[in-house]
Design a protein that fits this description.
With about 140 residues, the chain is α+β, with helices and mostly antiparallel strands. It has two domains: about 30 residues; about 110 residues, Immunoglobulin-like (Sandwich). The strands form two sheets. It has a four-stranded antiparallel sheet. Strands 1-2-5 form a three-stranded antiparallel sheet, with no helix packed on it. A hairpin with a 2-residue loop joins strand 1 and strand 2. The longest helix has 25 residues. Keywords: Membrane, Transmembrane, Transmembrane helix. This is Nitrogen fixation protein FixH. It holds the Pfam family FixH.
């Protein structure tokens, strides 16, 4: 084999490798966190205010993961009824996201069945309001 054939083979393998990398990158499903991502970023200051309210307020909502059940507990003092949403966000695949209404019972507890969720990392976002204002809290959980 002479040098001309060897150089041709090296270039051919290199170009084939680059084209296969491009093909794999183009075929990946890349989605933004939310469809209205840019709109949410513009309104982020209100989100910061809600997070501050949740930290300094007298009442807190806490998520307790217990196997395949999430237990939402109200701790502290709340003025009036709590209304809001619990959003379960899957960073790996936004098609798996779930949203539940927050409806605490008389004991201040709500149980959410997680048996339909795929195992892995989930972000839990609580967005609620009562007579004192609006609040936001988030945490991460791993569902098995």
């Amino acid at each position: 084999m002479n040098w001309g054939k060897a150089i041709f083979i090296v270039y051919t393998v290199f170009i084939t490798m680059i084209l296969s990398f491009v093909y794999v990158c183009v075929k990946q499903d890349i989605s933004l966190v939310a469809d209205d991502y840019y709109k949410q970023e513009i309104a982020y200051q209100s989100q910061i205010d809600k997070m501050t309210n949740a930290q300094v307020g007298e009442g807190k909502l806490i998520v307790d993961m217990n196997g395949r059940v999430a237990q939402l507990k109200a701790e502290g003092v709340f003025s009036g009824d709590i209304e809001g949403k619990m959003h379960l966000f899957r960073p790996a695949d936004s098609r798996l996201d779930r949203t539940f209404d927050i409806s605490l019972n008389d004991s201040g507890i709500q149980e959410v069945d997680l048996s339909a969720l795929a195992p892995g990392l989930w972000k839990i976002k609580l967005d609620w309001q009562d007579e004192d204002g609006t609040f936001y809290y988030k945490e991460q959980a791993v569902v098995f």
